[in-house]
Write a structure and sequence with these properties.
Layout lengths: L5 H14 L22 E7 L5 E12 L9 E6 L2 H6 L8 E5 L2 E10 L7 E6 H5 L1 H6 L24 E2 L5 E4 L2 E6 L3 H13 L2 E5 L1 E2 L14 E9 L2 E12 L2 E4 L8 E16 L6 E16 L4 E5 L6 E8 L4 E8 L6 H14 L9 E10 L5 E7 L8 H17 L8 E11 L4 E9 L3 E2 L4 E10 L5 E8 L7 E8 L1 H7 L1 H6 L7 H9 L6 E8 L3 E4 L2 E4 L3 H9 L7 E3 L2 E9 L3 E3 L1 E8 L1
Parallel strand pairs: 9-10, 11-16, 18-22, 23-33, 24-34
Antiparallel strand pairs: 1-2, 1-4, 2-3, 3-6, 4-5, 5-6, 5-8, 7-8, 9-13, 12-13, 12-15, 12-19, 13-14, 14-17, 15-16, 16-17, 18-19, 20-21, 20-22, 23-25, 25-26, 27-28, 27-34, 28-32, 29-30, 29-31
Length: 593
């Protein structure tokens, strides 16, 4: 038998161990240049299939696709080898798995070839392209710094461009698992399409207890990017490509393509890899916060290990006749994502209470605290109009819209202090539509009071008449005037001052918040008297009945301060509290002599 001395045995074991493991976080790995990549080149990829055990997977280069995902953005096309990947194929969550040739880092597995393919074919983002994210970090505008700094808002998250690689197959980004804990199936049914549009696959997951080793990351480990934490948690997950000093590169493609971001990084653990002929995925749990994701670019994401960023506290109280339930969440601060995440958290919290029942009417009161500004006040009633759309969805989307208006304002990047929502469940469906309206007399004089009668038809109830006493203001012009009987939505949509605010003609965010707080409430019935005299809107101020001389001065000054001229003025507005959602409108003519 061959005898090996213990020192030589240990040295040999150490060499074999190092050759089988990816580079450690403290290493500065040598780079394998793209110019040296050739078809047939052998290499290996490191990723986790279960537990926290990083495994090596052999691969072979098929070729290099130049300009595959954009100008000067090349992709290394590889074939993964081995029994395990033959069973799973390219797995959601593998994005960022480091790829080495001759012990040198070549890039990250980031794309896959089509769906239902028999072979595990993947695309590797070259490491040179991923390292360009460092240039983006150092060239970011100084004005973009700070807790609320974000890139320019976009209408929807932008995903990696696809590239043709065959007659009917496309090279597409590997799906990113979106791990949801505490998400009800009803919430997923309402918001699942939005999550899918982010290029993510929603999977059941969980949370893991924090560990002192959570920040000890190696290439091939997984990290989570937390979007919501608390009684509901939503996190995405990627594989770490490179760790250098306190910075990490991961994914090999963008999460959303937002550029400069601030999102919490957490340690992620792989419970198992679920094999599927349609789309295999890693099922993961997320643990303690270990840092901040700072860059979300075309070829990679980058994060800094350490403390996490500030998140927006969201508290929801659901008050029902049977019980009171409280929920607490924390949501990331992102103009593109936060409104949807707030809506999903609110909807999930309401429907999750066993005391809530379908058919209830929901009364919302709440605030959105904006640092340095007046709080936004939320106050409305929400009743289900049909069997397919529950009231919580109307409520959630209204909160989403109000929140989105604050984030999308053209004046400044808002810093949200917290969101407090109090939802009270009222029995029955409380809504009524305006059927018709009439006056007890149609010819009046300034100062007279006329009684408006409105016929309302409630849900599954007998029609009834509601009176609105209208006193004609003394300064009202003579002639035929229009009396609008309507719900709040009609006025909010058509009111003049609010229309000005949505076009960026206000001095700033504070004035916009003031306009939002002056919006009408949908549980009131409104009568609005309109007269054919000009109104000038200057910033957030409304100047009705303006004389012709003043109009001429404004015209000569070319509309200073964003002034706008409208050929109608509001002579008066009256409303009645109805304790139910009002919908519809009717127009009446009233003659003032």
């Amino acid at each position: 038998m061959l005898s090996i001395s213990k020192p030589w045995f240990y040295a040999l074991a150490l060499v074999l161990l190092l050759s089988a493991c990816p580079l450690r976080a403290a290493d500065n790995p040598p780079i394998f240049p793209l110019s040296d990549v050739r078809p047939g080149l052998k290499g290996e990829m490191y990723t986790i299939f279960s537990g926290d055990q990083i495994q090596k997977t052999d691969l072979e280069v098929i070729g290099v696709l130049h300009n595959a995902v954009g100008p000067k953005l090349d992709v290394i096309l590889v074939r993964l080898l081995g029994d395990q990947v033959q069973q799973t194929g390219v797995v959601a969550g593998m994005s960022g798995s480091p790829v080495y040739f001759d012990g040198k880092l070549a890039g990250a597995l980031a794309l896959k070839l089509g769906t239902f393919t028999k072979e595990a074919i993947g695309g590797v983002t070259p490491i040179q392209d991923m390292l360009e994210i460092e240039q983006s970090r150092t060239t970011d505008s100084p004005q973009a710094s700070g807790p609320s700094a974000v890139s320019e808002p976009v209408d929807a998250p932008q995903t990696f461009a696809v590239a043709g690689a065959g007659s009917k197959q496309l090279l597409v980004p590997i799906e990113t698992p979106l791990i949801a804990t505490g998400l009800y199936p009803e919430t997923l049914a309402k918001f699942g399409k939005i999550f899918s549009s982010w290029g993510m696959t929603v999977m059941a997951g969980g949370s893991a207890a924090p560990s002192p080793d959570d920040k000890d990351l190696k290439p091939g480990d997984m990290v989570g990017i937390d979007l919501v934490r608390g009684d509901l948690s939503i996190s995405s997950g990627c594989t770490v490509t490179m760790v250098q000093d306190n910075r990490i590169l991961a994914c090999g493609h963008p999460l959303f393509g937002f550029g400069k971001v601030e999102m919490p990084l957490s340690r992620a653990h792989v419970v198992m890899t679920l094999a599927s002929s349609a789309a295999s995925t890693k099922i993961i749990t997320t643990g303690a916060t270990i840092g901040t994701l700072t860059q979300d670019r075309q070829t990679a994401v980058m994060g800094v290990l350490g403390a996490g960023p500030n998140m927006i506290p969201l508290d929801i109280t659901l008050d029902t006749p049977a019980a009171e339930k409280k929920y607490h969440f924390e949501v990331i601060e992102s103009p593109q994502l936060t409104p949807t995440l707030v809506a999903a958290a609110a909807y999930n919290g309401i429907i999750g209470s066993p005391a809530y029942g379908e058919g209830s009417t929901l009364q919302l009161s709440g605030t959105i605290e904006v640092k340095g500004h007046t709080s936004v006040h939320l106050d409305d009633l929400f009743a289900p109009a049909d069997q397919s759309t529950p009231a919580p969805f109307y409520l959630a989307t209204q909160v989403q819209a109000d929140f989105g208006r604050i984030f999308a304002n053209p004046y400044e990047s808002p810093q949200i202090g917290r969101i407090d929502l109090h939802v009270k469940a009222l029995p029955e469906r409380r809504w009524a539509t305006i059927d018709s309206a009439w006056l007890d007399r149609s010819v009046v004089s300034p100062g007279d009071t006329v009684n408006v009668k409105v016929l309302l038809r409630p849900y599954r109830g007998a029609a009834f008449v509601q009176d609105i006493p209208v006193t004609i203001p003394p300064q009202t012009v003579t002639g035929n005037l229009e009396l609008v009987i309507s719900d709040a939505e009609f006025l909010n949509r058509n009111v003049q001052s609010l229309a000005a605010g949505t076009q960026g003609q206000l001095p700033g965010l504070e004035e916009m918040i003031q306009l939002i707080n002056r919006e009408r409430h949908n549980d009131r019935l409104y009568a609005t008297l309109l007269q054919p005299t000009p109104t000038v809107l200057v910033e957030d101020k409304e100047m009705p009945n303006i004389p012709a001389s003043a109009i001429n001065v404004l015209n000569q000054r070319q509309n200073p301060g964003g002034a706008r001229l409208l050929w109608q003025s509001t002579a008066g507005e009256w409303s009645v509290q109805m304790h139910q959602v009002i919908a519809g409108q009717d127009m009446l003519t009233i003659t003032v002599k």
